[in-house]
Every structure is written in structure tokens, then in C-alpha cells.
Amino acid sequence: MKYVARGLVLAVTGYLSGVALTVIINGNGATDELAVIAGYVLALIGWLAGVGGIEAFGRQWIGKTPKVSESQGWKRYFEFSIDHKVIGIQYGVTLISVLLIGGLSAMIMRIELASPGMGVVDLDDFNKIVSMHGILMVAVAVAGVIGAFGNYVIPIQIGAADMAFPRLNALAYWLLPPVAVGLLGAPFLGAFNAGWTSYAPLSVTNDSGQILFNLAIITFGLVSILGALNILVTVITMRAPGMTWGRLPIFTWAGFATSLLAFTVTQFFAAALVLVTMDRVAGTAFFSPDVGTGLLYEHIFWFYSHPAVYIMVLPGFGVILELVTTFARKPLFAYKAVVAALLSIVGLSVVVWAHHMFTSGMADFLHGPFMILTEAISIPTGIIFLSIIGTLWQGRLWFRTPLIVAFGWLFNFLIGGITGIFLADVATDIHLHDTYFVVAHFHYTIVGGAIFALLAATFYWFPKITGRMYNETAGRIFGIWVTLAFNATFIPLFWAGMNGMNRRVGDYPAAFEGANKFASVSALILGASFLLFVGNLLYSAIRGPKAGPNPWNARTLEWLVESPPSQHNFHSQPRIVGHPYDYGVEGSIHAHFPDEEPHAEEQREEVTV
Amino acid sequence: MTADTMHSEYHQDTAFQPRANRLGLWFFIMSECFLFGAFLSARYFTTGTFRPEELNQKLALAITIVLLASSISAYLAEASMAHNERKRFALWTTVTIGMAGIFLIGVAIELYEATLHYPPGTPYGSAYFMLIGLHAFHVITGMVGLFIVLFLGMRGRFGSDNYWGVEGVVKYWHFVDLAWVLIYPTLYLF
Ligand code: HEM
Ligand SMILES: [Cu+2]
């Protein structure tokens, strides 16, 4: 806590001195946007220096040996630890907290929308709450699975002791709290009301809270880019002997594909927001209605934000594939085709962005190609689906909580994908664009595809991370509850959207009241399910029964070491001799530890249930 | 005070670990290419290939030559360190920093003239200020990096078997140059 406190002190000092400096130089008030920018940048530097950057990086720049936190126990989660397992947990806890805050904002919206007319908030506040909800949840979906489990699991799955750049990994994590503070602090400067998409020119002319949004999201981009770069280098350079690309666990492949996207296209979101910021404070006119064009913003923004939906969902694919093969006790169906599908999604997803712009006034001749390319993504996505179904097919399904949530995922994502095709079709999209149909579609894909995967992954790796088992009954009840409540919330919204209810509105015609009431009640039930989720995990992390190293009889490396794994993951170098998912294949072995005593090894091998 | 104890496995990250470091740097540079790509395409999107008559072509050409030359001196600095020649390393690094300084002065003059003829409120002016500004920011960070390796190099931190810091900064410097090779024609020639 000492370092966090030091970071806070330096951050506040930095903020105040940045503001003071700008005020002195250009004589404007303390909430002038330039002052906020200067304050934010210095605060960010102060914070990073304070939480451990001075020891971990600064010392090296002046020629001394760097130092990092070496604490054990609870303390290390509040320090600049470079252990990827600690960092994974830091991401997980931070992002699940953000998920809960974002969930509360959704509850406020649904209460407001339960009946036409304005009740608990006014129209302007409603816009601000929608915007806050959207961006918080997008952040959770982008970084949730890959930040928490990508960090925790990938190095172990490939047989490495840590990430390739452990300090950079820690740095990336510690950039995350400022993102949350920046976004949640924006209401002090009037909040932002331009939606998570922040379309210009509205985002150029609205309240100063938008500046904090821009700064926070640029920082968030940095988190994404640095994290992705680290994963790429780790997977390329640190695989254990024998861990060929053809034996790479599928979750690692998914994380790799995600990182390929994240470390490149994320720059475009940052670029778009830099341009908005320049229009606001430097007098440029990119998006001004007179000499600029809002289309520029949309193109740059969607060049990131369409691939971003795959940044959200590819790690989810990895989780679900990993789960079904374990709980169906069968080899992963069509492993190679899945890898090819993941990589072709990476390629395709950067050439479809304009399907978000069919009604924006861009050139007509672009509609056709973007429609066809978008629909082409269904092919690799379909392959992944087939692999999941093929793996489950005639398997001896073991219905534990992770598999139950995975079934929820399967159903939701199917609906999400199918409704996507209606939106990709120009003719139908012109009717459906900007309606609740889109809202329902992307909740089915993002909540259904990314957040459900985050939940499934949490149950699946919980015993590994904490060493204790969650409560199975509570877990199963939660899995069924969350799936039903989620569907009850969003199915009616397809109907409302098809009949013309606009999205991002605080008020609506009385004809839509039935669907909205139903959705609001279901949303509250959905929200309540998370009490069970959090309660179960918190209680079980402390009181749960010991889980042992391999409660699922799984075969990938993280299950061949103790729970939680020791500081450097392995006591001796693992050697990879076979495919990770050959469940039920006579005599198959994924990995062994030739330098350990023989009996230790035997215990690990009977995993063909 | 826990940070005083060194993490035992720590050297992994700080010691000479060329393969991962190089790969990481290349990925970083690729990522940066996308940032520049976004801004370059914004210029063509909003203004096509329009360019005002008042551009100071001579000065722009001059600073372009200076910047390109600084890539050569940066290379020589790296090569000197690879041969353990500290003095020549210090010399060439200083020359590089000097040329970067000259480049920045030229850029400042250009920006000043720009405010007179094509201010940021015009479409071309917007693109101009954004691209030049982004690039100047990278020049400045590159200079900071050069200063740090110069300082560390003089204190004997690097040698012919361990000069990753120098190599990394110099590679970054080449990238800053390369970015200019795309920005210069985009703003001045097309
Ligand atoms: C077969 C797959 C998919 C197709 C064909 C598809 C198609 C589309 C189209 C055409 C739109 C634009 C609708 C409009 O605004 O009029 C859209 C919106 C959206 N989709 Fe998808 N989609 C697919 C999968 C996904 C996935 C996997 C995700 C996320 C994990 C996703 C997330 C979103 C989001 C967030 C939006 C709305 C963005 C906004 O306007 O705020 N989609 N989708
Ligand atoms: Cu899209």
C-alpha cells in the first residue's frame, strides 16, 4: 500500500503542477482543457513513478540496477510485482470491479426505461450514463479475458516462467487504474455525452469531460498495445522445448491472434481521439462542419472498433474451445482448421469496418464490397462453431459450472452471429441501423461472447488460481440464472428495434412499453445474479475446499503444476512430447518433466478419463 | 520496504536478451506505423493531394537532408559501440543529437510560417500541424533516448557484447527518419 500511496501523492502533485503551469502560461482557468491535459499527463507520470516505476525503470536510466516488488501474500497485489500471475489477478479484480460499476449504470438506465417519459434522470444525464456504461463495458470486454487469463495462463501453458518483458507487463497493468479514474472522474468536468463511439463533431463541442474520456482511452490503448506486444513476443520466444506451433494450446493461440489485432489497430482509436483533442484545443478543423468531415472520424474509429469486437471475442473463443474439450473428454475437433480460422478472422476483421457506416453518407459503391466481406467473416466464425459442436458431439459431457456457462455462451453467440448477418446486409441495415436491434445484437455478441467467456474462464481457472474449489451448486445455479436472465433481457429488444425504437434514447413512444418493461425487470434479475457470482467466489477463495492440482483432469501445462503455481511456475523444465487435447487417446502424453523424480511424474499422467 | 530486495529471476529482462528485445522493438515499430498510417490517410482523406503555394520548399528539403544524415551518424554511433570505441560513440551520438536539434529548429520555423499562410483552422493546415506535430514528438522522444544512452555510454554501461540500449534507440531513430520519408512527400511533394 505504501507504493500506491506514494503513487497517489505524486499523481495529485503532478496534476496540480500541470494545471498550475498551464494557468500561469496561458492565463485561463483551472478547468481549461489544456490545463486538464497537462495535469493528466503529469499525474500519469507521477503515478507510474510512484507505484514503482522509479525503482523498476528510473534506476536503470541513471545506471543503477533496477528493483521490483518481491513481497509475498496480499501485499504484492498492491505493489509493482512483475510476476505474471500477480498481474493477471490484478487485471481480473480491477476489471470485474469495473464490470460491476458498469452494471450499476445499466441498472439505472433500465429503471429509467421501464416506462415512457422521464423518471429518475433527465435526458442529458441519460446520455451521459449511456456513454459511461458503454465505454466501461467495452473496456472490460477488450481487456477482461486477455488481461486476466491471458496473463495468468498463457506463460504457463507454453511452459515459460514468466512473460518476455515482465516489467513492461507490470507497467501496462498500472496504467489501468488511471483509465478508470479518468473515466469515472469525467463527471466532475461535465461528463461526456457522445456515446462510447464519441462521434465527431459532437465530441468536439460537448462538455470538457470528453477530454478526460479521450485521455483515459488513449491510455487504455497503451495498455492494450503493450500487453499485446508482450504476449506476442512471449509466445514466439519462450515456448518450452517441444512446444511447436502445432501443439500450442488453443487458448494461447486465441490470445496470440487477439494480440496480433490489438497491437496494430488500437493505434487508430488513439489517433481518432488525438484528432478530436486537437480540434478541441489546438484549433484544427478535421471534424468541423464547415471545412472538415465527420466521416473521417467514423472511418478511423471503426477501423479500430470493428476489429475490437474480435479483440473482445477471440479470447472467448479460446476459453470455450479449451473448456469443451476438457469437459467432453474428447480431442479438440479440427484443431488445425480452428487455428486457420482464428488467423483468417484477424485478417478479415480489418477490411469490414465500413459496415457500421451504411447510413453515414459514405460513397455508395463501397456498400457492396463491405457487405460481402462482412458476411465472409461468418465462414471462419462458423468453423470455430463447428469445432465446438464437433468436440461436444457424442462426448461424455461432464456438466460442471464452466460447461454450463459455455452452453449459455454457445446459444447467445449463435443469436449474436445470426443477427449480425441482418445488420451486414445493406438493405436490412438501413432499416435496423441505430435501433435497439443493434443494441441487442452487440449485447448478444459481447456479453454473450466475451463476458460469458470471462465468467466461464473464471470458474474454470478459479481452482488453479486460488487453490480452492468454488461452490458447485451455487455455480450451477448462477450459470443457469445468468443465461436465462440475459436472454429475457435482450430478446424483447430485438422486437423493439425491428419496430423502430431508436437506441440511446431516454424516452420512447408508448407502443414499446411492454417490451421495455419486460427487459427492465429481467435486467434487474440479471444484475442480481452477480451477487451470487461474487459471493460464491469471495467465500470460496477463503473457505472453499482445497482443489488439488488438477480438478478437471485437464492436460494443458497449467494443470500439471500445483495450485496455485509456484513462483516460477515449474520446478524443472517441462518437455512437450504430444498434443494437448488427446483425451482418451491410448498412451498419449502432452508433457513430462524429465528432471523430476519418477513418481511425481506418474501422478500427473493418468489424465485420460 | 520490499522493493529493496531483488527479484531473483529478474535478469531475464534487463540483461542482454537480444532476440526478445529486438522482436519487441520491431513489433513496437509496426504498431507505430499504424499510428502514422492513420494520420497519413487522414491527410489524403480530407485534402487529397492539395498543397498550398506558400510552402517553404527549400527549408523543408534542407531539414530533410539533415535528418537523413542523422541516421548515418546514428548508425556510426551504434557501430562504434559494437567495436567498443567509446569516444567515437560519444562523438557520433552527439552529432546525431545536434542534427536532430537543427531539424527541430527548422520545423519550428516551418510551423511559424504555417500559422501565417495555412493556419490549423484550414483543412491543409490541420493535416500539416497534426503530421508535423506527431513527428516532432517522436523526434523529441528519440532525442531523449539518445541523451540517455550517451550518458550511460560515457559511464561505461555498454560494451561490444552488451549494447542493446544503443541498438534499440538507434533503431527507433531510423524509424523516426523513415516516418519523415513518408511525411515529407505527403505534405510537400504530392
Ligand atoms: C457474423 C458476425 C457479425 C456480423 C456479420 C456483424 C455485423 C454487424 C453490423 C453490420 C453492425 C452495424 C449495425 C449498425 O450499426 O447498423 C454491427 C454492430 C455491432 N456489432 Fe456486430 N457483427 C458480427 C459479430 C459481432 C461480434 C462477434 C461482436 C462482438 C464481440 C460484434 C459487436 C458489434 C458491436 C459492438 C456493434 C455496434 C457498435 C455500435 O454501433 O455501437 N459483432 N455488427
Ligand atoms: Cu463491426
Could you describe the 3D structure shown?
Chain A has a single domain (82-543), classed as Cytochrome C Oxidase, Chain A, CATH 1.20.210. Chain A has a two-stranded antiparallel ribbon with strand order 1-2. Chain A has 609 residues and is mainly α. Residues 605-609 of chain A have low confidence and may be disordered. Chain A has helices spanning 2-26, 33-61, 84-113, 123-157, 166-174, 176-185, 202-205, 209-237, 250-281, 294-328, 335-348, 367-376, 378-392, 401-424, 426-432, 436-466, 472-498, 513-543, 598-605, and strands at residues 575-576, 591-592. Chain B is mainly α and 190 residues long. Chain B has one domain: Four Helix Bundle (Hemerythrin (Met), subunit A), CATH 1.20.120.80. Chain B is 79% helix and 0% strand. Chain B contains 6 helices and no strands. The longest helix of chain B is centred in the middle third of the chain and has 32 residues, at 86-117. Chain B is elongated, with a radius of gyration of 19 Å. The relative contact order of chain B is 0.15. Chains A and B meet through α2, α5, α8, α9 and α10 of A and α1, α2 and α5 of B. Bound molecules: protoporphyrin IX containing FE and copper (II) ion.
Defining traits:
A: 609 residues, mainly alpha, Cytochrome C Oxidase, Chain A, B: 190 residues, 79% helix, elongated, disordered N terminus, binds protoporphyrin IX containing FE, binds copper (II) ion
Helices and strands in order:
The complex is a heterodimer of chains A (609) and B (190).
Chain A: H1 2-26, H2 33-61, H3 84-113, H4 123-157, H5 166-174, H6 176-185, H7 202-205, H8 209-237, H9 250-281, H10 294-328, H11 335-348, H12 367-376, H13 378-392, H14 401-424, H15 426-432, H16 436-466, H17 472-498, H18 513-543, E1 575-576, E2 591-592, H19 598-605
Antiparallel strand pairs in A: 1-2
Chain B: H1 11-14, H2 18-47, H3 57-82, H4 86-117, H5 123-154, H6 164-189
Helix pairs in contact in B: 2-5, 2-6, 3-4, 3-6, 4-5, 5-6
